[in-house]
Specification:
Helix content is about 50%, strand content about 15%. Helix 8 links the parallel strand 7 and strand 8. A six-stranded parallel β-sheet has the order 1-4-3-6-7-8, sandwiched between helices. Strands 10-9-11-12-13 form a five-stranded parallel β-sheet, with helices on both faces. It starts with a strand and ends with a strand. The protein has 19 helices and 20 strands. By secondary structure, it is α/β, with parallel strands linked by helices. The longest helix is centred in the first third of the chain and has 35 residues. This is diguanylate cyclase. InterPro entries: CheY-like_superfamily, Diguanylate_Cyclase, GGDEF_dom, Nucleotide_cyclase, Rev_trsase/Diguanyl_cyclase, Sig_transdc_resp-reg_receiver.
Length: about 550
Amino acid sequence: MTAQFPSQQVTPCRREMEREKRQKRYAADLRGKLGELRNVWDAYRERPDAQLLRSTHGWLRLLTGLTALTGRENAANLALRAADKLAPYLDTTLSPAADIAQKVDALLEELARELGLPRSEPPPRLSEIAAGEFCPMARTSDIYVYDSDSRAAKELAGQLEGFGYSLRIFPDMLALQDMVMEVLPAAVILDSPVREGRMHELICVIGETSLVESCVPVLVVSGRDDLLLRLLAVRCGASAFLTKPVNPAALVDKLDALIAGPGREPYRILVVDDDQQAAERTAQALSNRGWQPLIMGNPLQALERMTEFRPDLILMDLYMPECSGMELAEVIRQKDEHIGLPIVFLSSCGDMATRMAAMIRGGDDILPKDMDPIMLVRALEGRLGRSRDMRRLMDRDSLTGLVNHTNIKLRLASELSRTQRQGATLALAMIDLDRFKNVNDTYGHLTGDLVLKSLAKTLKRRLRKADIVGRYGGEEFAVILVDVQGEREALAIMDSIRKGFARIRHRGGDREFCVTFSCGLALSSGGHSAEELCQAADRAMYKAKELGRNRIFVAG
């Protein structure tokens, strides 16, 4: 959905008045925010707590930005120095040493004096602080767009909405800047005619009022493609630069890469340990990092669950009564699909002979069982990233990045088995682009590839998180809709995607065109096999083409 804010004429006088008003508002906030900071830090000094420490660091980063924006360089430097003192302790279980805490105390006193608030004076409170709570800025999943050409902005919004993005258009830079100060967007897209000073000011507002770990990317779009303009964008702190006319798929590529959102699939870790308490401690450490652990207390059941859970890594105890970790690793390695799966052992015995035996028998590493949870997560992180990258190369279609033909069929068989076991319903959608040969013949195969990538991105963005999408072959795609309530829900999901994709305009040379698709839908019922479901969905898809294309037909 696109929201547009009314344009107002911006005179130099009004611009200066708005800037002064904004700076006064920031200055008025400073003392209150310093009070909040001191309350949180005092609470931490009385009762050390990791969340309170992160909150203190967050308030310090916010004050660094606000004081810099109001021209108080000394105050900004003091807040930044205090934040830097605490930063090394944010991802550890350690507390700052006494001398570090005393230095932070001294910096806060100096900061209070700099802002005209002596340490002895009771700090003003903006709110009653819940322990560990820090939410200085509201956030939205919307993308803010500034473009002096409102028509071009609306066209861009229509294109991106087809990929599932929601845009808010601001023809007035001041309105955009004020909105950023109130609600941070997922990203900002700026038209390049913005002057250097205005662009730099806006990017400063975004960067300095959001936390380092949640900063907002700014993309510059320009009708010119020259080095000086690109250099200007780099110097102002822009995250990306694209030229007009913007290719929607290329812009979505950039947005997907820059926006780290919750949609990213978490790492899946299979924890195999007969010691329930130890397994739960390990799983808690993994969950705290945002990963998805699955505990298996019985190693003999691990192989069966692996097909369904599809772990990115196995973390298992070395010594278990019914089956040792080394034995289970050898069994897992007997299956070709698990040859590259990382297996890490946990053991209280870490001598060289044990380590060598573990490696020879299928393990990748051995870690202490009593390892600090933060250190455990760090030890696994790099290995997990490489594992997923390798799997993506093996399991994915090279053009679209979707699951390939072989693996979509394997996933369908696995999901069908699960739904039949649980009494749930699954729907399979087979999609085929309409008149795709004409696209290749008219605009060339390179343009045809871009259309395929565009459809792949649309499907990935518009489907639910649990759904699975793959390239079945050529211009044909398969979508597994898991746990649907019935035909109506499955039809609604796919029809929304069909309509959104049909609105996307693709470019071939200097011409624009749209592409549609036909879809066949089949729902699991009775004891249908994966192959029977594929055939039913395929027949329904061809029926949709016979009825006129650009429609969905449900198998009877």
